[in-house]
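User: quick one, fold this
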Amino acid sequence: MPIGNGRFGAMLFGGVGQERVQLNEDTLWAGSPYTPDNPDALAALPEIRKLIFEGKYKEATELASARMMAKPLQQMSYGTLGDLLLTFEGARPPRRYERSLDLKTAIARTRFTTARGSIDRECFASAPDQLVVLRMTASAGERINFTLGYRGPREVQKAPPDYQGAATELVEDAKVDWLKAEPVEEDRSGAIVASAADGSLLITGHNKAQNGVPAGLTYALLGKVITEGKLHASGGSLTVSGAREVLLLLAAATSYRRYDDSSGDPVAIVRKRIAAGSGRNYAVLKRAHVADYRGFFDRFAIDLGQSAAAKLPTDRRVAKAESADDPALAALYVQYARYLLISSSRPGTQPANLQGIWNEGTNPPWGGKYTININTEMNYWPADPANLGLCVEPLVRLVEDLSVRGAATAKTMYAARGWVAHHNTDLWRAAAPIDGPLWGLWPCGGAWLCNALYRHYQFSPDAAFLERLYPLMRGSALFFLDTLIEDPKGRGLITSPSLSPEHEHPFGSSLCAGPAMDRQIIRDLFDHIVAAGRKLGRDTALLEQMAAARARLALDRVGKSGQLQEWLEDWDDDAPEQQHRHVSHLYGLYPSSQINVRDMPALTEAAKVSLTKRGDFATGWATAWRACLWARLGEGNHAHVILKGLLGPKRTYPNMFDAHPPFQIDGNFGGAAAIMEMLLQSWGGELRPLAALPAAWPNGSVKGIRAEGGIVADLEWRAGKLTTLLLRGMPQSGHSIRYDGTLWPARLDVNGFYRFQAGSDPQGPA
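Assistant:
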C-alpha cells in the first residue's frame, strides 16, 4: 500500500512476521549539478539536416549519435532511502487478516487476530508535520515485540518479461508467507546507522555517483519510537518488548535545495521535525493529517453505479475486471488516481515522476525520471478535471527550472534564443538529448510542457498565473522561431532533426524532419503565446512574427490509407511496428483539440483510421491514452472496452498500481483522465456533458469536476440521459453547453450559479 505527503513516501507490505516500510524522499536522486550540453552539436547540425533531406537516415543517425547527444549520454536516476524492517518476535499465523487503504483519510491499515488477541497497525504520511506516522496497538493477551532495523538502498529492478502477464504474475507472487522475514543484511550503501536509548534511530548517507557525474547529496532518515513497553538500543537497531502500543515517527530529508544547490543540512531538518512531532500525541497528528488531506480529496465525488462485484476485495475485483460488471471499480480507479496525485505532487514538492515517489531501488525502470514526450504530461492530465489544480504547482516550478537550464542547451547546441528540452529530464533539470538519437533527439519536450501549463490556465483563468507562464511560453516559442526551417518540398515550416517519439519509420531510424506531433505541439504553442501576449498587452511585433510562423507550419496530412500521417511523408503503412505503443501524431486530437469532431470532420476520421490501425491495447499508459482518444471522439462504448482492459489483471496490479510493466504511475493518471473525459469534455469553448457516456454506466453522478473557463460542475444522469447539470464559476460569465446535438447558451447568475434541468429548456440563472 502506498502512502505519501507529496515529498516523503512509503510502501507498506503488511507482513505478520515482519513489516517492511520501504521509503522514498522526492529529492534523493543520483549525481549532482551537471551540464550535459554537447558543444559539438552546433557544427554537426547542418550536415545532419542535409542527410535527412537526402533520405540518408542511417548516416544522419550515426552522425547525430557521434556529435549531437548529451555528455553523459544518460541522465541521473531517482533513488530510495531503503527499508525499515520491523521483525516481530514470536509471530504466529493469523486467524483473520485484513489490509486496507482508506482513500478518504489516506490511512493504511493492517489488522489481524491470533489466538491471544489482535494487532492493529495504522500508518499515514502527514504533510502538516512532514512525518510518516505508524501506530501499532495490541489488544487482549497480545503484545508487540519487535526489532527495528535498517536495510540500505539496493539495486532492485523487477521487470516481468511480458506486460500481458505482468499483474497476473504478481498475484501469484503475492501468496502470503505470513511469517516470512527478510534479513537486515550488511549495508553496502555506505549509510551510517546509530540507535539511542531514547528510541531514536538515525541513518545518514549519501546518494550515488552515476554516468560519470559524482555524488553530491547527503540524506538523513530519523526514526523515533515512543512506547510504554521495554525499549533497548543496540548498535544499529532498536528492540521493543511487551508493548501494548507503539508510535513510530519517521522524518527524512536530503541536502538538495534546488537544481544548482545541494548545500542543505538534512540532519538538522529531520531532528527539528521529529522534535516537533514527538510533542504531539497520535490523535493530534492524525487529526491534522486527515484535515489537510481532505482539503484536497473532498473536492470531488464520483458514482458510476454499483454491482455485486463492488462487495469483493479490490484484488479480486481487478482479477475479474475484464469480464465482470463493476462500474464502481472505474469510480474507485479515479479516486485512487486522485489519491496518488495528492500523495506524490503537492505545492513545494518535486513533480510526480515515472513512479510517482514510490521506487524500491537505485536503478528504477527508465531511471524513474521525467519522460516529457508523454509520461510526465500524462501524470497531470487528470489534475484539473479532478479538482486538483493545486497539485500542478510542482510541474510549474520544474518548467521554470528547465527554462533556465534549457536556455544554455538552446544556445550551445542550436545557437538559438529561448530554451529547449528534449524527451527527458531529471532532478538537475538536464535538457540535452539523451539515450541515443532514436529516442532523445526530439526538441519538443519543453513546448509540450508549456502547452500543459496553458491548459491548466484554461481550467483556472488567473491573471497572476498567466504572468508567470508567459515568459516560459515566450522562451519556448523563440527557440522554434530560430530553429524551424523550410521544407525543401514547399510544404511549410518544419523541425529538423526530430522524430515521432520512439517510433521507427521504414528506413531503419526514427530521425526525420517535421513529424506530425511536432507541428501540432508548435501550432498550439504559438496559438497560446499569441493569446496570452495579447491578453497581457506584450510583445506586439514579436507576437506578429509568431502568428506568421504558425500560419506557415506544414499542415496535417491524410495518407493513402485514409490515415492521419504520422510523418510528413506517407510512410505509415510501411512502418515496421504497426501497433506501436506511442500514438504521437494523435496529440492534435487529445490532449489538444486542434483536430475535433466539430470543426475538422475529415481529419477526425483520418485520426480514427490511425487509431484503429494502432490497436486498442499496449503498455499501461499507452492503453490509457487510447481510451482518452476514443472518448474525445465521442465513442464511449469503445473507450469503455479499452478501460476494462486497463483495469484488468494484465495492466493493473492487485494494489491498483499501473502495470507498464513494471510499475509506472502514468497509466493510473491517464486512465482516470479517460473516465472523466467520458463524463465531461471541455474544449473549443464548449462544455460537453456525457459526450462519451458508455452504456455500462446508465446511472450515476459526478460532483466537483472542473472544466475550462474556471467552471466547477455537478452532473447527474439516469437511463443514460442527463438529468441535472449545475455549473459554478465567475458570476455573470457566459458559457456554451453542447448536449444531445444542441448548443445551449449559459450565463451564470450574480452568485456564480447556473442550472440545466432535463425535460425542459435550460433554465436561466439559478
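User: anything notable?
Assistant: The chain is about 30% helix and 20% strand.
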